[in-house]
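Hello forum,

I keep getting stuck at the same step: I have a sequence, I want structure tokens, and every attempt I make locally crashes halfway through. Rather than fight my setup again tonight, could one of you with a working pipeline run this one for me? It's a single chain of 234 residues.
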Amino acid sequence: MNKKVIAAHQPNFLPWMGFFYKWFKADLMVFLDDTAFSRRSYINRVQIRYTSNKLWLTIPLLQKGRFNQPICQMEIQDDILWRDNVRGKLKSSYGKAKFFKDYFPEFEAIIKKEYHLLASLNIELLKWLSDKLEIETPWVLSSSLKGVEGKATERLVSICRCLGATHYLSGFGGQKYHEKEIFDKHHIECVIYDFKHPVYPQLSGDFIPGLSTLDLLFNCGPESSEMLKKFSHG
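Reply #2:
Ran it on my machine without issues. Output:
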């Protein structure tokens, strides 16, 4: 049997570099868009750098009475102010970054579109960022798969079996909640990778890791892909 490595993650909003490294290392990326939305997660928010501190970018959602609703059903609040808020924070934070003017217009063109669902916006931004990072790994939505069953690890194993995966790629954090014996039972190897966050030039002060990949792109431009792939190991 040929080796086939599957990775999976919620379609987060403008996520950090580790998200894209996982995507790069896999043969197929699964966006878990039919899992439950989690408040105070990175599905609708992310941190950027503002001077020497961190600042949240947040997409406001209709959440009242929708606890545990699937991500693919989460609706963006019908409020144009969030777009102005995101644009304003990015201009204030990165307006002087070396490559800001090269990429911001493309980003702005995406968020100017009318998105009703959070997942639709996030996936469009993920596609854009993966293109800039030269990631060619294909992706699929978990909501499009047939016959997927179970919860937690059982659901991941079901996704792997549905897609003919021999290996499931997980970060160190996944060890806390993945049940390895369930993967073993179905002869799927759970591979743990270690993402070593590269240090790259930021506008000022000490380096802050874990920010949105926009931070990398605005500061490093065309070298961002090499930064992600060359200086990471796992």
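Strands lie at 5-9, 28-31, 45-50, 53-58, 139-141, 167-171, 189-193. If your local run keeps crashing, start a new thread with the error log.
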